[in-house]
Amino acid sequence: MNRSSKWMSRIGSDPEFNVEFDDLVKETFEHLAQGRHRVALQNAQKLYNLRPKDCRAAICLAWSYVETGDPAQALDYANLAVQLGRDAVETRLYRGFILQRLSMFEEAIIDLDVVISTNSNALV
C-alpha cells in the first residue's frame, strides 16, 4: 500500500460509502501513478460528485487537474481540500506538492513546514 492509499483509508471514512468510495480513491491514485491522467480525472470527478464535502475527493480532483494541465482548478480544489480536512495534515502535504508542481515555491514551503512541524506520519 503506497503513502496515498494509507492516508486515504485513514481519514474521512464514512461507513455508508466506505468500501466503494475507498476503492475508487485507491483506483484514482493508481491511475495517476501510472500516467492515466484522463481516467484519473474522470474517477476524481465521480468521487467529488459522490462526496463533495470529503477532503479526499477534493485532493484527488486537485491532483488530477494538475496532471491534466488545469492549474487554476487544481489550486481551487487543493485549497478546498485543506478547508474540508481541517486538521488532516495530509491535505497540507498534498497541497504543498501541488503548489510545488505549479512553481509556487514559497507557498509550498509554508504547507510543507506545517507538515514537518506536526511530526506527522504523513511523511512516512
Question: What this model shows, in words?
Answer:
There is one protein chain. This protein has helices at residues 3-10, 18-33, 37-50, 55-67, 71-85, 89-101, 105-117. The chain is an all-alpha fold and 124 residues long. The radius of gyration is 13 Å and the shape is globular. 40% of the residues are buried. The model is unreliable at 5-12 (pLDDT under 50).
How would you describe this structure in keywords?
mainly alpha, single chain, 124 residues, globular
Order of helices and strands: HHHHHHH
Radius of gyration: 13 Å
Helix content: over 70%
Strand segment tally: 0
N→C terminal distance? 12 Å
Distinct helical segment count: 7
- Contiguous uncertain segments of 5+ residues: 5-12
- Overall 3D shape: globular
Helix and strand composition category: mainly alpha
The biggest beta sheet reads: none
The chain-level mean pLDDT equals 87
- Which percent band covers the strand fraction? under 5%
